[in-house]
Amino acid sequence: MTDQPASIGQEVEQEAQFGIIPVLPHERVWGFGDFTWVNVGLAIATWAFLIGGSMASFVNLREGIAAAVIGNVIAVALMALSTCVPSGKYGLEQYTLARSILGRHGVKIIVFVWLVAIEFGWANVLSVMFGRSSTHVVNELAHTSFGYSSLVVTAFAVLAIVISWLILAKGPVSIKWFNTIVAPGLFIIQIVMVILILHEKSWGQLTAIAPLEPFGNRLLDFTIAVEFNLAAGFSWWNVMGSLARVTKTKRAAFWPNMIGLFAAAVIGEIVGLMSALALGSSDPTVWMIPIGGVALGVVALVWIAFANMTSIVSIIYSTCLALKQVGGAAFAKVSWGTLTGLFFVGPAILTIWPGLIYDHFFQFLLWSGVAYAPLSGIWIVDYFVLRHQWLDLRAIYETGRDKPYAFWRGWNPAGLIALGAGSISYIIFLNPASLNHIAAFKYTTASLPSFAIGAAVYWILTEVWVKRAGKGGYDRRPVGSVSPMAAVGAETGSTPEH
Amino acid sequence: MDTKVFEDPKTQAELERRLDLLMDPDYKDDPARQDYTAADFLAIAAFVVILSLAFFIWGYLA
For the residues A45-66, what does the mean pLDDT come to? Predict the structure, then answer.
């Protein structure tokens, strides 16, 4: 793949470079409606089925709908405030802006550790879902009985990865084309599924079905389901800033998330939850043929397999773009085909054990909360409270050691300590690997304390250490550009920055 | 130059041009650059709290 045509490498390189320079007003192409549709398209994906299906293990239909709404509305709002609002205002994607909280080298931690690890997992989950969907189609059409963890699943999963790589190597244009046709197809599948399920079972019958594998404590099961949705909502963090940067107004940067990501994802999850409860399985690939019959079921499975592939392509595209943007000269020298190919090696090896992550999907998703809940808290306290919604745009790019966002040689230890404290507190409240939890978890969730602890530690360390050391540029907001919130603070007696 | 980011001089010059434009004290006509006000935060908080409470009561308490 190193011999790819120069135009593809140049196209990607241009997009990577365009991504890290601030946009001008005429380049802001998305109004409120445009960004809403973009969000709806993102949210209508197969992972909504996985999330809904996983919730069925713990809660019934009414509780699950409530958990989906509560978890998503809180997490999507906090995620959007932390990443979409600053990215929308300054026309910059989140990883470049994050230099103001972690330092230019500190940002590499969230890209090379969190982003890569989580997207490795997502690529594996989606390729296995492709593999299982395809295996169901083969079993139905060829009257075979390959198992859910057989080598046939692995072979199809690897095939999905290889095809995704070939699509990725063709660059951004082919990706956008695929995405325009997948979401409408999945939306139609969701509608047909709801109609067919409600044709078989009444609403009353559906709400009476008990959860599949609950812990047995109703509040604990409900909180687990809420936590699951909190983690799902926070997991959008790594995508949304890059998109919100081209929105036209401050409200267009935020509210479409609440309509698109929140509402569309919740609807998809409810369809998944209904299906899982009705059929007694949390695996979406099992639902289609029992719900729709052989013909409709096979068509739906083929579409789901296809949709998974486009999701893999989109996820790995944005991840490898971030690696190029943050990785500096070392990554700039690696060709696009080689980088994306190397990225797929890990997920491809993991497909040897198809159920390793896929069958523990809800635990895997909780790790997103470990990463992005405290990061959202840190960013909100830094941007809204400490900096009063003002960033020194030029300083974002300045590389000298005495520059505001250089902190200490490009690292902000306050940000990294706060991130670590928030992440560890999450694992104390709820360990995603073992699901061990402390007693307080069922009243507090794990994401919300993690968010609050990350924010509080960052605030305290910045006040007592970073500001006193004259680092971080917290005294640089120009006189006369006081934000409305700072002005409110002044009216009520508190002291704004200027 | 402290803001040297790109090896390509054209891209670097474009970055400098944009920073000069966007950091200009007279740059005020971009509606995306408006700050969030107390009313904005109140609307977001109300949306989140009302939906959460309503669905908690309907889905869990009822």
Answer: 94
Which region among A160-174, A254-268, A339-353, A456-470 has the lowest average model confidence (pLDDT)?
A160-174
CB A344 within 8 A of CB A317: no
The ipTM assigned to this model is 0.94
Average pLDDT rounded to a whole number, residues A398-425:
94
From the CB of residue A12, how many other CB atoms can be counted at a distance below 10 Å?
Answer: 24
Alpha helices in chain B (DSSP H): 9-22, 38-56
Give tens-digit pLDDT for A273-319.
999 999 999 999 999 999 999 999 999 999 998 888 888 888 888 88
> Contact A485/B4, CB-based, under 8 Å?
no
By C-alpha distance, which of A310, A473, A444, A271 is closest to A383?
Answer: A473
Under 8 Å between Cβ of A75 and A447 = yes
**CATH architecture label of A28-361:** Orthogonal Bundle (1.10)
Among left, alpha and beta (phi > 0; psi -120 to 50; other), residue A480 is: left
The domains of chain A are located at: 28-361
A420 φ, ψ to 5°?
Answer: -65, -45
For residue A250, list chain B residues with Cβ-Cβ distance below 8 A. 31-36, 40
**B37–A389: do the CB atoms touch at under 8 Å?**
no
Strand, coil or helix: what is A437? Answer: strand
Task: For residue A485, give the nearest of B33, B38, B59 by CB distance.
Answer: B38
List the single residue in A91, A253, A484 with the smallest CB-CB distance to B35: A484
For the segment A471-483, the average pLDDT, to the nearest whole number, is 71
H helix runs in A201-283, sequence order: 203-208, 218-234, 237-244, 250-256, 265-279
Burial of A491: CB neighbours in 10 Å, binned 0-12, 13-18, 19+: exposed
Biggest alpha carbon–alpha carbon distance for chain B: 65
Whole-number pLDDT of residue A173: 63
Scanning A80-150, the segments in alpha helix (DSSP H) are 85-90, 94-97, 99-102, 107-109, 116-142
User: For residue A58, how many C-alpha atoms fall within 13 Å in the half-sphere facing its CB?
Assistant: 26
Count of A-B CB contacts under 8 Å: 114
Answer whether residue A492 shows pLDDT above 60.
Answer: no
Instruction: Look up residue A489 and give its two tokens.
Output: 């603070």
Please give the Cα distance from A414 to A432 (Å, whole number). 25
What digits encode the pLDDT tens for the residues A314-328?
A: 888 888 888 888 887
Interface residue ranges in chain B relative to chain A, Cβ cutoff 8 Å: 2-6, 8, 11, 14-15, 18-19, 21-23, 25, 29-38, 40-41, 44, 47-48, 51-52, 55-56, 58-60, 62
Give residue limits of the domains in chain B.
Answer: 9-28+35-61
What was the pLDDT predicted at A489?
Answer: 41
Q: Looking at chain A, how many residues does it have?
A: 498
Written as one letter, the residue type at A430 is L
The model's pLDDT over A224-275, given as tens digits with 9 standing for 90+, comes to 999 999 999 999 998 899 889 999 999 999 999 999 899 999 999 999 999 9
pTM for the predicted model, two decimal places: 0.91
What residues have CB less than 8 Å from A470, skipping those under 6 apart?
none
